[in-house]
């Protein structure tokens, strides 16, 4: 494949775009259009669809990798426990402020005085004074009485409650495993399909992700979805154990006051960047584009804010999975990212908050490479990496130029496509520094990242093939 043929896939931005696959985006033709429009990472939502459907999409994606000569990362998003009320005799009930509703374990269809709450863990955990939210927070109730197998709740806000609406319980850690039996089966299937990342839902404690990491056994990278307030309180411990973070603001915004979400987003993005791990800002980014060909100005501003915050990636959910305008959604998100990154303020923000250096030679070399690249206006920074650690260290510096990651591990190149500014390429094993320079300059040209007469900054570990041994820096000319 020639440079001209690859050119459409050279992104004019560093922030990555994640798109969720579904009925609106399941065909080979649509998937190719999405990738050409700007998708770097695809998300398979295991809350929906059969294993065979997801496996077919993985096969299509791997075929596209070969056709487009570009790694594509795949995230398997596990459903996690779903807390819901039961069913009503008439399908729904009308609520008024001050009305009392009994929540119990009786599976009989409910009415305007009681409803089934099939979660004894919630009934056992909550006490009078606690709040319970239903239907994404549209219904808010306060617990006023507790029995052995029931709760009495008083309606504070909300006018209607219908069958199987979701339940949120803010401010408590529920004794519910983050991995359900369905999740365990889905996890095995996803790993057998060869996904690159696993996103774990309903994470409340570090122990939740520790269990998932053990089950994954290194076959994929693990990402914790931050959607519970308890995960915020224990965030440092969770971050230590995982390989990346997805900030699921939609669910999180139900359980914490909405005015707290923007500041929390900035804090989490900064903390994850400091750790050198990738973060996705997700949910409700361009939600109106499920039905409309253009986003609202508020949605465009929301995407831009995430980019100004320094996120690695922004995500589309139903917009690409089931929406009427999947290509347009990706295209406008791509343009928003480009426009923000071209703003002088954006570069000043990124440069003003460089993470502190770790006390090891590899990090020192990586920081020096970014500084040298900026000083000489290099076309790109090139890393040779086995595990991906060198490239992750480079990405956390948020350099202004692309990061060309060369690795003999296809798994590594795919995982790194989620990270800020990374253009990953699979290469054979390198045995000498002379070969490394030769291949780096060739690939920078082939991939459309550099032109004749430009310079690149190269880092590598000598001897080659030793993970975590970055100890060499070189400036090379493109001839």
UniProtKB/TrEMBL annotation:
Which UniProt keywords are given for this protein, alphabetically ordered?
ATP-binding, Glycolysis, Kinase, Magnesium, Metal-binding, Nucleotide-binding, Pyruvate, Transferase
Q: Pathway, according to UniProt?
A: Carbohydrate degradation; glycolysis; pyruvate from D-glyceraldehyde 3-phosphate: step 5/5
Q: Catalysed reaction per UniProt? A: pyruvate + ATP = phosphoenolpyruvate + ADP + H(+)
Which cofactor(s) does the record list?
K(+)
Record bears the keyword Metal-binding? yes
Superkingdom is Bacteria
Q: Which residues form the Pyruvate kinase barrel domain?
A: 13-330
Under which name does UniProt file this protein? Pyruvate kinase
**Alphabetized Pfam families for the sequence:** PK, PK_C
NCBIfam families assigned to the protein according to its UniProt record, in alphabetical order: PRK05826.1, PRK06247.1, PRK06354.1, pyruv_kin
Q: Which GO terms describe its molecular function?
A: ATP binding; kinase activity; magnesium ion binding; potassium ion binding; pyruvate kinase activity
The keyword Membrane appears for this protein? no
Query: Which residue intervals define the domain Pyruvate kinase C-terminal in the entry?
Result: 363-475
EC number(s) per UniProt? 2.7.1.40
Q: Which family does it belong to?
A: Belongs to the pyruvate kinase family.
């Amino acid at each position: 494949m020639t440079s001209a043929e690859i050119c459409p896939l050279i992104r004019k931005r560093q922030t990555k775009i994640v798109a969720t696959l579904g009925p609106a985006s399941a065909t080979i033709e649509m998937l190719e259009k999405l990738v050409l429009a700007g998708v770097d990472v695809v998300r398979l939502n295991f809350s929906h669809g059969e294993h065979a459907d997801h496996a077919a999409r993985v096969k299509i994606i791997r075929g596209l990798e070969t056709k487009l000569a570009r790694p594509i990362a795949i995230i398997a998003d596990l459903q996690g426990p779903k807390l819901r009320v039961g069913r009503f005799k008439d399908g729904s009930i009308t609520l008024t402020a001050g009305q009392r509703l009994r929540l119990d374990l009786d599976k009989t269809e409910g009415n305007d005085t009681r409803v089934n709450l099939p979660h004894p863990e919630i009934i056992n955990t909550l006490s009078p004074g606690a709040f319970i939210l239903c239907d994404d927070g549209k219904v808010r109730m306060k617990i006023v009485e507790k029995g052995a197998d029931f709760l009495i709740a008083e309606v504070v806000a909300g006018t209607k409650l219908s069958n199987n609406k979701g339940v949120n319980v803010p401010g408590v850690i529920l004794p519910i495993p983050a991995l359900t039996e369905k999740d365990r089966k889905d996890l095995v299937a996803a790993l057998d399909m060869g996904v690159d990342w696993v996103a774990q839902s309903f994470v409340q404690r570090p122990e939740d992700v520790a269990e998932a990491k053990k089950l994954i056994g290194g076959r994929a990278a693990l990402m914790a979805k931050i959607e519970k307030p308890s995960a915020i309180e224990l965030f440092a411990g969770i971050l230590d154990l995982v390989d990346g973070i997805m900030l699921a603001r939609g669910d999180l915004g139900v359980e914490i006051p909405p005015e707290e979400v923007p500041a929390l987003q900035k804090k989490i993005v900064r903390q994850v960047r400091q750790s050198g791990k990738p973060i996705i800002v997700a949910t409700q980014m361009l939600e109106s584009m499920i039905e409309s060909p253009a986003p609202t100005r508020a949605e465009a501003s929301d995407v831009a804010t995430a980019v100004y915050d320094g996120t690695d990636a922004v995500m589309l959910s139903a917009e690409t999975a089931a929406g009427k305008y999947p290509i347009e959604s990706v295209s406008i998100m791509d343009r928003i990212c480009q426009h923000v990154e071209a703003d002088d303020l954006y570069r000043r923000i990124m440069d003003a908050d460089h993470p502190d250096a770790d006390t090891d030679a590899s990090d020192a070399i990586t920081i020096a490479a970014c500084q040298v690249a900026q000083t000489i206006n290099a076309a790109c920074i090139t890393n040779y990496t086995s595990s991906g650690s060198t490239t992750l260290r480079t990405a956390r510096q948020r350099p202004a130029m692309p990061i060309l990651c060369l690795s003999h591990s296809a798994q590594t190149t795919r995982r790194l496509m989620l990270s800020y500014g990374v253009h990953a390429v699979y290469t054979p094993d390198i045995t000498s520094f002379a070969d490394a320079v030769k291949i780096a300059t060739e690939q920078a040209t082939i991939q459309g990242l550099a032109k004749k007469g430009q310079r690149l900054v190269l880092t590598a570990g000598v001897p080659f093939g030793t993970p975590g041994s970055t100890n060499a820096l070189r400036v090379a000319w493109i001839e």
